[in-house]
UniProtKB/TrEMBL annotation:
GO terms for molecular function: protein dimerization activity. Pfam families: SpoOE-like (PF09388). InterPro entries: HLH_DNA-bd_sf, Spo0E-like, Spo0E-like_sf. It comes from the Bacteria. The lineage of its organism: Bacteria, Bacillati, Bacillota, Bacilli, Bacillales. It comes from Paenibacillus xylanivorans. GO terms for biological process: regulation of sporulation. This is Sporulation protein Spo0E.
Amino acid sequence: MRKRSVLKDQIEQGRQELSRLVDQYGIPSVKVLEQSMALDELINEYNRFTTEMNMNIEK
């Protein structure tokens, strides 16, 4: 469970950083794109982790 809560915290921090970058640089910015991609990776990792947990529960 610890990994799940860590990922959730990292996702929230990533969202806040993305919002800050959008405010500072605007949407068409390389920095915004990079942060958006990093956030996508965290969300994908979270989804893989929760899917894996659910599959283990169903066994």
